[in-house]
């Protein structure tokens, strides 16, 4: 086994976990409210990630100003983002949702241009247009007349909104991740997101825990342990040993995994419009990312 094989296996596992998160979330929110799922998921995730950091001797307290910044990111990027997405997944298909979320790097490029004044070149603009058309093709099931008819799926629109919240979180977190070790930063972000989810959980979610069956608990544990803790550890461990450009390519696998997992476990159909639209989204994202690396 070469020195690069181990980190590649880690990053592959990370994107496989993230690809399966859509199906796991959809299963969990079909049993209990998104509030209960988020509280359990991020409580488990923070505990596991904190334990891993402690065992690796990387767990430490941070100055108050950094903690305040991470708390803001936890509210926006963990609690609000996942709350919107979980509500969307109650009615939206898991595979379609993953393909929509795949356009997030394109939204990040747009927001970076507006908020951070980063320059967009012509090819990036083409990629953005292509990805946006791909999302519209997915939402319309191949019938773009839906824009005129107003026949929207509210769940899918919520998933689109969650792509924007994650893009905003990514833009806002750039500064924090430059000064704080990424895995440690994510621990405090997840922990603060769990804290914010505790407030509505105390009023609504406590009485729902008993409704979770074996499938619900299995999905929640998968989300907490594998998607919210180990995936981030594997991802950042790989970034230390591999070029960021190589690690980033693995993200293209995640929506494909999500569609396959949703087809196997949820019986979601493989729509031609999703395949075509997903292809446009991934192509557009690859064009945008290629120009950014250049």
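^ structure tokens above, recovered residues below v
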């Amino acid at each position: 086994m070469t020195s690069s094989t181990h980190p590649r296996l880690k990053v592959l596992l990370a994107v496989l976990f993230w690809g399966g998160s859509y199906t796991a979330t959809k299963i969990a929110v079909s049993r209990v409210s998104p509030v209960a799922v988020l509280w359990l998921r991020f409580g488990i995730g923070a505990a596991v990630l904190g334990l891993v950091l402690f065992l690796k001797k990387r767990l430490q307290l941070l100055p108050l100003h950094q903690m305040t910044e991470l708390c803001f990111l936890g509210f926006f990027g963990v609690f609000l983002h996942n709350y919107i997405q979980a509500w969307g997944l109650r009615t939206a298909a898991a595979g379609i949702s993953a393909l929509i979320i795949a356009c997030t790097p394109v939204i990040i490029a747009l927001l970076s241009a507006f908020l951070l004044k980063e320059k967009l070149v012509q090819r990036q603009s083409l990629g953005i247009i292509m990805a946006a058309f791909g999302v519209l093709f997915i939402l319309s099931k191949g019938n773009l007349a839906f824009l005129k008819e107003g026949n929207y799926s509210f769940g899918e629109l919520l998933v689109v909104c969650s792509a924007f919240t994650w893009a905003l979180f990514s833009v806002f977190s750039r500064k924090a991740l430059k000064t704080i070790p990424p895995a440690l930063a994510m621990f405090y972000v997840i922990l603060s997101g769990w804290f914010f989810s505790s407030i509505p959980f105390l009023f609504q979610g406590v009485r729902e825990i008993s409704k979770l069956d074996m499938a619900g608990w299995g999905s929640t544990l998968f989300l907490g342990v594998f998607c919210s803790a180990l995936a981030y550890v594997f991802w950042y461990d790989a970034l230390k040993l591999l070029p960021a450009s190589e690690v980033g390519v693995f993200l293209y696998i995640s929506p494909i995994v999500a569609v396959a997992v949703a087809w196997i476990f949820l019986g979601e159909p493989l729509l031609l419009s999703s395949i075509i639209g997903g292809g446009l989204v991934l192509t557009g994202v690859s064009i945008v990312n290629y120009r950014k690396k250049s």
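The radius of gyration is 19 Å.
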